[in-house]
Amino acid sequence: MTGATILGVEGLTLDRNERAFLREADPWGFILFARNVDSPEQLRRLTGDLRDAVGRDAIVMTDQEGGRVQRLRPPHWTDWPAAMESAADGERAVELRHRLMGQELRAAGIDCDAAPCLDIAQEETHPFLRNRCFGTDAESVARMGRAAADGLLAAGVLPVVKHMPGHGRTRVDSHHDLPILAADLDELDETDFAPFRALADLPMGMTAHIRLTQLDDRPATASAAAIALIRQRIGFGGLLMSDDIGMNALSGSLGGRASAAMAAGCDLVLHCNATRDEFEEVVAAAGRMTDAAARRAAAALDRRGPPDPVPAVLLRDELRHLTSGR
C-alpha cells in the first residue's frame, strides 16, 4: 500500500534529497501551489519528476477554482472567474470553463483539481469562501457543481468536492481559527448537506475543518461522527481526504492531527507546506492506506479518463458566444 498522504513539495524542481524522501514516503499523490509553478515546460518537468520519484502514475493535484484561488495564472494560463461569477453565466458556461481549465491542467501534467466547492454562500459566509461558492441555495450549487465536475472529468481531470459536510454557514476562516456550526442536523440535511448528497457519486472529496456542535467537540476532519455523517447521511462513498492539516483550525502537533484524521475515518491526509521534519512526522503518523481506502483510490483512478479530444478553440468560441452579452 502507498502512504496515506498527499504531499506538497518545496519549489520549482526536485533536488536529490527531496526525491529520495518522496521515494521513501511514497505518498498516494501530490499537491502543487504557486511556488511550484513558473512555465508550462517547467511544470511538465516537475509533474513528470514527481511521478518518477514514486515510480507510478500518481495523482498530481492543485487548487484551480478561479478567482483568487488558482495556482496557474497568466501569462501562460487563463485567468478564470470565481465560481459565483461563473455561475451567473449558467451551467453550460460553467462546464465549458472547467473543460478548458481541465485541458490546461492536464497539458501541464496535473490530473486532479481540488474543485468544485459545494458550500452554499450565506450572508454571513466569511469572505475567504463566499465568492468561491456557486450560489446561495442548495439546488443551484448542486447544478453548477455538477457542471463543473463534468467539465473537469471530460478533460481527464478528477474533481474533488469540498468542503464536506458544508462550510458555507461559518463566519470564520479555517486557515486561522476553528469555525463552529451550531445548526440543527435536520435543517442542514435540507441545505448544506444537499449539494454533497446530489454529487455523492463523484470519486473524491475533501473534509471541512469545522465543528458541528450537534455531533461532538472535534473538527469534522478529526471527528468519527462527522466522517460517519459524510459516509452515511450524505452517502459519499468516494476517496475522502482531509483539508490541509497545517491550517490553524486544527490544534496539536502535525503528527497528532494526521493520526486524528486517520482515526476518524479519512482515507488520506493532505499536508501542503512544511519543513522536512514536519513532513516526516506526518508521513509516519498517517501510515499506509487501508484496504478500504485503497479500493476507493482504485475506483477514483478508474474515473481518470483520457484528455478531452475537443479542440480548445471550439470550446472557447462557444463560451465567448454564451457570454458575449455580458
How would you sum up this structure, described in words?
The protein has 326 residues and is of the alpha/beta class. 40% of the residues lie in helices and 13% in strands. A six-stranded parallel sheet has the order 7-6-3-2-1-13. Helix 1 crosses helix 2, helix 4 runs parallel beside helix 5 and helix 9 runs parallel beside helix 10. The longest helix has 17 residues. The termini are far apart.
Count of strand segments: 13
Q: What portion of the residues fall into strands of 2 or more residues?
A: 5-15%
Order of helix and strand elements from N to C terminus: EHEHEEEHHEHEEEHHEEHEHEHHH
Shape: globular
Mean pLDDT: 95
Helical proportion, percent range:
40-55%
**Largest sheet strand order:** 7-6-3-2-1-13
Structural class: alpha/beta
Instruction: Give unreliable regions as ranges.
Output: none
Alpha-carbon Rg, integer: 19 Å
Q: Please outline the major beta sheet.
A: 6 strands, parallel
Distance between the termini: 51 Å
The number of helical elements comes to: 12
